[in-house]
């Protein structure tokens, strides 16, 4: 059925309104964080609240960057997130390739087990994980935090790469085998170069998960030398008192690295998600 011009106009208006509402819903909290970070303490607690700072100030950013432990927390988060991302991408690729490209008994069960492992809520795992890390002497260490994060990033990366590897023609593997390549050589020299967009996607999501994680960071580390920024922000909450200015300024600083990464890797993200959404 061909739509009339009036129906098309109404459809566009409805779509535009929906997009604007979605943007408002998504960006309003970020806007409020930025605005609050630029306000003085007096204005933050003013009633009624102001949508724009009357006298914008960078004092909260100055305090967060130069008079607190927050830079150390951000460095710890970066160290942990980068380590988790690299390990998850490597292990995920090595695990996803045989499941996606090879035939063996229990392949389907293995794939489903990976999904189940990812879907397990962290609130069920942090107690047994705490006991494991405690027995290994890794409590209050960044190494222990990396190991804890791998419990949810590796299954996620593996599952995503399984779907992506399945979009790559199997004939490429067969041609590499005919040329004398081993399975590992086929993965490294044939499959992974083609799968760069998919790797970029899983690496970005693994980094984001590790960067934003809060529960494990709060439970497994407690010293300022090892805290990530998500756990470090709790130091700005003292009972029922919230140091809103520094809290919001620190949050803005923590958002910037993720924002930059997403902007730079936007093309790879779109290509990876689009290619991984269909089976070739």
Structure description:
The protein has 280 residues and is mainly alpha-helical. Helix content is 74%, strand content 1%. It folds into two domains: 5-57, no CATH class; 60-276, MetI-like (MetI-like fold, Orthogonal Bundle). It has a two-stranded antiparallel sheet with strand order 1-2. Strand 1 (237-238) and strand 2 (241-242) form a beta hairpin. It starts with a helix and ends with a helix.
What is the topology?
Blueprint: H1 5-37, H2 41-44, H3 59-66, H4 70-101, H5 107-119, H6 122-135, H7 142-165, H8 171-178, H9 183-194, H10 196-212, H11 215-220, H12 229-232, E1 237-238, E2 241-242, H13 244-264, H14 266-276
Antiparallel strand pairs: 1-2
Helix pairs in contact: 1-13, 3-13, 4-7, 4-10, 5-7, 7-10, 8-9, 10-14
Give a short overview:
This protein is an all-alpha fold. It is 74% helix and 1% strand.
Keywords:
280 residues; mainly alpha; MetI-like fold; 2 domains; 14 helices; 1% strand; disordered C terminus
Main pleated sheet = 2 strands, antiparallel
Mean model confidence by pLDDT:
85
End-to-end Cα distance: 31 Å
Number of strands: 2
Number of helices: 14
CATH topology of the largest domain: MetI-like fold
Structural class, please? mainly alpha
How many domains? The number is 2
| Uncertain stretches | 276-280
Radius of gyration: 23 Å
Morphology call: globular
What portion of residues belong to β-strands?
Answer: under 5%
Query: What is the CATH-assigned architecture of the largest domain?
Result: Orthogonal Bundle
Q: For this structure, what is the CATH class of the largest domain? A: Mainly Alpha
| Strands side by side in the biggest sheet | 1-2
